[in-house]
Design brief:
Elements: H1 5-40, H2 44-59, E1 61-70, E2 75-81, H3 86-89, E3 93-95, H4 99-107, E4 111-113, H5 124-130, E5 137-144, E6 147-157, H6 164-208, H7 215-226, H8 237-245, H9 256-259, H10 267-274, H11 276-284, H12 291-299, H13 320-335, H14 346-355, H15 363-371, H16 373-382
Antiparallel strand pairs: 1-2, 1-6, 2-3, 4-5, 5-6
Helix pairs in contact: 1-2, 1-6, 2-6, 7-8, 7-13, 8-12, 11-12, 12-13, 13-14
């Protein structure tokens, strides 16, 4: 059947409408996904990094960055960056009143720079230091509660240059990103308060448990010293330290009659004493950001050969942090004076640890620990 002119026209209309549709969908879905991220994830860097990748995709940019304002030094520093030069950017700081970003921060305006080399505001030093060539960019301030805390930039459109439309989209995204930062900051405050109260509980507990002195602080320090060789990034170290410090937090739930009993524990008392691992899990497990602390609280009495407690986990089924904590905890206990025992001399501690290689302790982590034994002893003496 032949199509009428109006049928063809309306089909054409439909076609052009559907041809435009993906663009709108992608821009809205990017926004939706950012909002979903804000609600689902409160890890600030994860939120920001994913938001930036979505933003680049939506605007067809090849790189983006978030610069934060340091009011004390009146500088802008690259907080997060994507693209080929992201690592070089991390160390760069620039005066907060210079460059396109600086101008955007000062004036509160979103700036579209179609040709960076011709812009009087363009701050060439960043490109010179990173060997990145900025062709075009948009910079928009990040407002939080009436203050501009930094600037969001997208750089180098894949084809051509950024449009006015792109500028409006970036502005909207900056507002959403600022909500993410604000939420994450509030969450961070709550998180830090929670961690601080848990740490206080762990510190208070040591006075009840035969006053173990600086035991928990030292355990944190040994862990942080060894962690880089076990694959921990610098950003993970502080969390590891506090998590290690909380390894015996479950002892708060152990009655004095058992915890402070001078003699040997009978089997039932021993069973109850061993529940300090799972009690620790109960105490710490309510906070999603304390999962590492949970691993350590439950894993530090597991043994490599599967004869430990509470779950008789074996070898690598014990979390890495638990395997590390097992060595650290025993090393420190053997080295320390307790009401029921004198400290063992370092040579004997070394020997006792080595004798348990592959039975109690993870052989590889133990080898690392013993290779740094002198340093570990120094930590012990420095924090005795
Ligand atoms: Fe313990």
């Amino acid at each position: 059947m032949k199509k009428t002119a109006s049928q063809s026209k309306s089909k054409h209309k439909l076609k052009s409408r559907s041809a435009k549709k993906p663009k709108r969908i992608s821009s809205f879905s990017a926004r939706d996904r950012i909002i979903r991220l804000i609600n689902s994830s409160l890890d600030i860097d994860k939120v920001l990094h994913l938001s930036m990748l979505l933003m680049e995709k939506t605007l067809n940019a090849t790189a983006s960055s978030i610069l934060l304002h340091d009011p004390e030094k009146n500088e802008l520093k690259f907080y997060l960056a994507t693209g080929a030069k992201k690592d070089a950017l991390k160390v760069i700081r620039m005066p907060a009143d210079q460059g396109v970003a600086g101008r955007s921060l000062q004036t509160g305006r979103t700036l579209l720079i179609p040709e960076a080399s011709k812009s009087p505001f363009f701050y060439k030093q960043v490109d010179e230091k990173t060997k990145f060539v900025t062709k075009n960019l948009i910079a928009t301030p990040i407002p939080i509660r009436g203050k501009r805390i930094g600037v969001l930039e997208v750089l180098n459109k894949t084809h051509g240059t950024f449009s006015h439309q792109d500028m409006l989209k970036l502005k909207t995204m900056a507002a959403e990103i600022s909500v993410a930062i604000d939420n994450a900051r509030l969450y961070d405050e709550v998180k830090h308060a929670y961690i601080a109260s848990m740490l206080n509980m762990a510190k208070a507990e040591k006075y009840r448990d035969h006053d173990t002195g600086m035991h928990i602080e030292r355990c944190g320090e040994y862990a942080v010293r060894l962690a880089p060789e076990l694959g921990f990034t610098p950003r993970e170290l502080e969390n590891l330290r506090v998590s290690m410090m909380m390894h015996d937090i479950g002892k708060v739930a152990i009655p004095d009659a058992i915890l402070l009993k001078p003699g040997r524990l009978d089997p039932e008392e021993m069973r109850l004493m061993q529940t300090h691992t799972t009690k620790g899990e109960e105490i710490l497990g309510r906070a999603p950001h304390l999962q590492r602390a949970v691993e350590i609280a439950t894993g530090h009495h597991e043994k490599w050969d599967g004869s430990g407690y509470p779950r008789r986990l074996k070898a690598r089924t014990i979390p890495l942090t638990g395997r590390l904590a097992a060595i650290i905890d025993v090393f420190d206990a053997l080295s320390s004076k307790r009401p029921y025992k004198d400290p063992f001399p370092p040579e004997q501690v070394f020997k006792m640890l080595k004798e348990n290689r592959g039975t109690h302790f993870d052989p590889e982590i133990l080898d690392l620990f013993l290779s740094r034994f002198t340093e570990m002893r120094e930590v012990y003496q420095g924090m005795a």
